[in-house]
Write a structure and sequence with these properties.
This protein is of the alpha/beta class. It has helices spanning about 20-30, 50-60, 80-85, 90-95, 130-140, 170-180, 290-300; strands at about 1-5, 35-40, 65-70, 100-105, 110, 145-150, 185-190, 195-200, 215, 235-240, 245-255, 260-270. The chain has 7 helices and 12 strands. The strands form 2 sheets. Strands 3-2-1-10-11-12 form a 6-stranded mixed sheet. It has a 6-stranded mixed sheet with strand order 4-5-6-7-9-8, with helices on one face.
Length: about 300
């Protein structure tokens, strides 16, 4: 079993909520994940002070591999000359000197792609062909059981409510390429509310039979949530094992002072026969998932 903590859109600066940030720290240490993914927008206005605060917060998380990628708020918006000449100066100093990177952990390969485009499109972002080639090379000749994950800040699929729904240009091209690479999961942010589903929900794709699981995190520590997560905070916990990907969506509630699970999503990995254990009360074997379906059919025939 591999576990991931997926957070996004921390927005250090005026929108950052210190109380929620501290609750997330406690949550992370209770969870004890194998890997942490932080999918961009570490700051509100890409100042060095905000990046330093974000770095200090990241350093307090559990000491496990941490995957990062910049967001559109991590490049200067109003400091035009800096945005044109050296947009990632503070990000490289405080968060990561590498903008696109491949990380290997036992059982998984994670490719984080920098989707920001400070000189082209501040809001919507871009994924270029050379980045798709980088992912293709990283996933080449991997064993079937190895999990393949893409991380980017901007979204490849629109949210279910379609508020602020514009995806990256040529997102469908990227989804087709990732599907051919047998990518299992895409993790992202930017939307400021969660979306967990499959690429086939919104795009049939060149491959009509296989899609990619997409999990967007809301804003985890700011009060800039949108739509149904307005002024709310959320994160995702991903657990993978036995050919099954389980994603639990958590939201922060003031009365609980903590992140509380609000939904669970279960997917079977492509080409992997599912074998569920009883570690989360799911019963012995995949048969337990369909027990209610069989009972309903039996009752209907009586």
């Amino acid at each position: 079993m591999i576990s991931f903590l997926h957070v996004s859109d921390l927005h250090f600066g005026p929108p950052y909520h210190e109380g929620v940030g501290e609750a997330l720290q406690k949550f992370a240490h209770r969870l004890g994940p194998d890997c942490i993914v932080a999918s961009g927008d570490f700051t509100q206005r890409a100042t060095e002070e905000q990046f330093a605060a974000a770095r200090a917060w990241l350093d307090r998380l559990p000491r496990v591999p941490t995957i990062v990628t910049p967001g559109n708020h991590d490049v200067p918006l109003y400091r035009g000359l800096e945005r044109l000449l050296d947009p990632y100066r503070h990000y490289r100093k405080h968060i990561s000197d590498t903008l696109d990177q491949v990380t290997e952990i036992p059982g998984a390969v994670i490719v984080s792609l920098n989707s920001t485009a400070p000189r082209q499109a501040i809001t919507n972002g871009r994924i270029h062909r050379w980045q798709i080639d980088l992912a293709r090379e990283a996933f080449r000749n991997l064993p079937d059981e190895t999990l393949r994950i893409i991380v980017s800040h901007h979204h490849f699929a629109p949210p279910p409510d379609w508020e602020g729904a514009d995806v990256m240009p040529k997102a469908k091209r990227a989804l087709d390429a990732f599907t051919a690479m047998r990518v299992d999961l895409i993790l992202g942010g930017h939307l400021h509310r969660a979306y967990i589903g499959n690429s086939l929900d919104v795009y049939a794709g060149a491959d009509r039979e296989h899609g990619i699981i997409i999990a967007q995190s809301g804003t985890s520590t700011s009060r800039r949530g949108r739509a149904r997560e307005r002024e709310k905070n959320s994160l995702n916990v991903v657990r993978v094992g036995g050919g099954v990907i389980r994603i639990t969506h958590y939201m922060y509630f003031d009365d609980a002072g903590d992140f509380v699970p609000t939904s669970r999503h279960l997917f079977f990995r492509r080409g992997r026969p599912p074998v569920l254990d009883d570690d989360e009360g799911l019963g012995h074997g995949v048969e337990s998932i369909f027990m209610d379906d069989r009972r309903e059919r039996r009752d209907a025939t009586v």
